[in-house]
């Protein structure tokens, strides 16, 4: 029997007539058909709420299918019609007492979805009973229901003993019940100001035992909760990790990635380096296997691998071939792979990587090609022995004359010049052939920088600069700054060639342009040149600090936090969750006697201080789900400040930018000047 | 009677549209008849302000010259006005009225500046424009079947009017388009990005236009109920309000047109209207570059399957892997229930799908989702199942929560059989120089178990690590396979595998994927391909492709297909082959060479010549790799073999086991 025919717009009065018709209705087939029409219309987004009384009347029909449809209707519309929802209460009351456990569970589950105060009040008593029901199906449903209730009335849940009931469920004989209780407790803990989930080793050990018998989703919930274990004794972390490791073989990538998260977290509490190395060995194969799942999961896997290899470079260091792009990979997978390839590139495999990158640079997708070209340049900066080959590859690419490839190449060649001064100047002539094609400010600025830097080697540098200067006033600030500096360099290196240009540029910069940076720089140069040329020379031609690809590395504090969120959205965006999820509790490594020393900057210390402050009065290391936060004032201050930060930046940013996959999100910069630590240059641009 | 019907038809038009239509007809007709003087109705602010001729605020919007175009205009106003009012605004006439008023005010302000004193056209086009913005993907046909997407509709109309009136720019219409876009931005786009709605419908209007009783249906005004058109309010900063919660907040299935086929909200932090945002951001977007889109704090996860979008939403920093796995699982459950999951199947079974979704996802937390267990209590033949559920409920609930949730205990077969299929996909990437860049095998062991009772199975492979552990097998190690990694169905006892590498399990009934494995060592590539491709000048490319089968001559490969890419500017290809058939397929930009049966150790050759048309732009051809497809039965690239499958059951029955091997092409690509 096909229900497709119900997918058409129904008129409300007709539906009402059908529901109330007195015609003989054997087995309620008519009613069922009408209800299906109503559900179909609800799906299509047509407002059916005015049928409320008529649909409620159907609750009396003792057919499960009808009951389920009526419940669906209730869930959809109850909030808008609280008075109507009350009429359903007697039926619910009857159902929670039903001898059939499926019916009891269905009633509890549905009541939890209905956000009407009266219904909630009626739910409390039966829910308590259901949490101790003899049937595990009812108990597991009731566990989730507590989390639902918490969202409606957190004080009720906190004060009416539900937390204790949930806690008792952690040692239930049925694994599904345990898993759902854990899920509910985790969620409550993540949102509550007063409740913080803490698991001691005894409970953790019981949960791990339940892992073996759980459904795959249940395993994920339990693993997730293990993030709240803080190992105190030496050996605890090792033992736990060892017992979790078999999960890495699970077919469900959620289980695998969550297990990876817990193991990476526990490594922070391991004392012996060899244990850590051992665990790292176990992590590699499952991470690679993620790449044989569907493209979406591959993407999730790749973004997380990028995090894991930054913290533990040994993982996957010999598996770079796995990350070579397939021609028909979706673009998001390709982009993520490219990033990992660059990260894993080393002396041993650089030849292969380079030949792959050259291959990608001839593909079609513009962003991908650009990123490939840029990676070639970064590779040259990262690995000295390969610089020559990279430069050759870039020159080949420039010969193709494909506009964006040329521009991208010039941008990275500038970085190569900075890293290896006086080695590759011979190629300048070739670069100069492409001057006319440059239209992107970044490429222009890079080219101008090259001309200025080597003004004395390029015969016609003054002519080239003059060409650029022709449009000085229309250029972007980036290009104008480059032009200003390059002209001054030219003047210092070849006074005769530059003497005509310099005053012109200085005059423009100081009088015609509004940008204060440009104007200030103009004034400084002007004064320097007019008072002390030797000093000017020392300033303008001073030795530049060395650049390296180290600036690509993520801020270690952020990395540490992201590693505690593996598999989650924030690990995909490489953004701390507090930056895009309001009121989310930040996670950080909780000190214990076995915590390995983290040698980060002062930022980490601040975190730990505030942590000590927050948690110092808590109970011992026993499981203490209801521990009241003694300083929750302080905590809410934290939350508030996150919110303020988020709001402030909303004010500044264009709303258009909110879309995460904004254009060209992978742009990175290797110059020291633009090293933007902590702000995350190398991230998907994600503005909130 | 006819008159009554006409009246009923008139009354069935939604109120605001009806008012607009009536006013237009009355005013325009009376103007033409001369009842109302012409100089008395146009828009003139100075007269309004100084002479207090307030009617001039209304009349300009309802004046149109009578004629053929007048009928057209009325038709447009009727169609799009009533569609907007009854479906886009879901009967919230107040909001629609506010839209009309808002755009009219804007037009009246801008109009005089551009010389538009009669604004009926701008009112009409703003209605059309809002309709087209709300239904961007609809196909509109106009003037003798000329078809285009709705989003271009206003512009087509403007062009048409401009041409018909002799290349005069229709300023009035442009003003209307601008005002509609302004409204759409302020009321929809901006709030969708998280901002407040800057132009809420004034309270006064709600008073003036109370909820209407139309054709027996009660529509409510305001936003308390389903809010179809308006974007959701941004997450409030109030901690105690339920604004954001973990896991999956909503689940949708869309068809390719962006119509919602299934919509289920699990948490109160979202409204059904969020569905429109996904349609606009992803389905109507041609360049989607990520399977996850986050707008504000709402994240959309989508997976495409057949002609569907499976979409899950969350407002929390949720486990992305879990959400995607859940989407995959929904697809699998769908397949298991309905054969395949596509638009037709979803529509035909939507009630069952709702039941399933209620069961497998509770408050956004995935629950037991084994199709086999679900089928015990959610079935397509409802009547039969219901009695069963009532009787067996206790058994079902144990099953759905128990340690072996994937198997019923009462399975019975007269003949106990088990079939094992080892299916390997070989992935290959060969460089231009003929080096293997990467090659690996992704294997899958599928099992069909038709075994009674609760059988314990033990399964053995020629796995190197296992065999080396066993001293008696030392000498046979040459015949072993080194498995890089493997993953198992949830029925396999992982702890046991971890300790002694024994694969033991209680299988689900019927077909399931027992394990997946991956190996990259000692792979026997079934086919070798030697391409020689030379570009002769700019007008010709010569191909010589040699394919050799690398497996035993006793075996045969089936369905061998080579896809040999040609440049985009290929005009024609001549090819000759020593076996099979080859032809140029312009739609795929490639030569497709099919060899239905390919014996082991044999080799075949293709020679082809592609003629190119002259190209103006100089972008080089990116030379996509040659890709290959094939199936070889009774052959495994990895060399993997099943050594045993033992079945233990209380009743100690005899069981028959079968094994079959197959190697097929995964990503088999050869660069040239």
From TrEMBL, chain A:
Keyword Protein transport included in the entry's annotation: yes
* Pfam families recorded: Adaptin_N
One GO biological-process annotation of the entry reads: intracellular protein transport
Its keywords, alphabetically, are: Membrane, Protein transport, Transport
Instruction: Reply yes or no: does the keyword Transport apply.
Output: yes
- Limits of the Clathrin/coatomer adaptor adaptin-like N-terminal domain: 14-531
Q: Which InterPro entries match?
A: AP_beta (IPR026739), AP_complex_bsu_1_2_4 (IPR016342), ARM-like (IPR011989), ARM-type_fold (IPR016024), Armadillo (IPR000225), Clathrin/coatomer_adapt-like_N (IPR002553)
Gene3D superfamilies, per database record: Leucine-rich Repeat Variant
Q: Which GO terms describe its molecular function?
A: clathrin binding
Q: Where in the cell is it found?
A: Endomembrane system
Where on the tree of life does the source sit, at the highest rank?
Eukaryota
This entry carries the following GO cellular component terms, namely: endomembrane system; membrane coat
What's the stated role of this polypeptide? Adaptins are components of the adaptor complexes which link clathrin to receptors in coated vesicles. Clathrin-associated protein complexes are believed to interact with the cytoplasmic tails of membrane proteins, leading to their selection and concentration.
The UniProt entry, under PANTHER family, shows: ADAPTOR COMPLEX SUBUNIT BETA FAMILY MEMBER
UniProt family annotation: Belongs to the adaptor complexes large subunit family.
Q: What is this protein called?
A: AP complex subunit beta
Please report the organism this UniProt entry assigns to the protein: Modicella reniformis
UniProtKB/TrEMBL annotation, chain B:
Q: Which residues cross the membrane?
A: 20-41, 61-81, 93-110, 155-186
* MHD domain segment(s): 415-671
Q: Which UniProt keywords apply?
A: Cell membrane, Coated pit, Endocytosis, Membrane, Protein transport, Transmembrane, Transmembrane helix, Transport
Does Ligase appear among the keywords?
A: no
Question: What protein am I looking at?
Answer: MHD domain-containing protein
Subcellular location per UniProt equals:
Cell membrane; Membrane, Coated pit; Membrane
User: For this UniProt entry, what is the primary localization, expressed as one broad class?
Assistant: membrane
For this entry, list what GO says about its biological process.
endocytosis; intracellular protein transport
Gene3D superfamilies listed in its UniProt record: 3.30.450.60, Mu homology domain, subdomain B
This protein's GO cellular component annotations are: clathrin adaptor complex; clathrin-coated pit; plasma membrane
The source's superkingdom equals Eukaryota
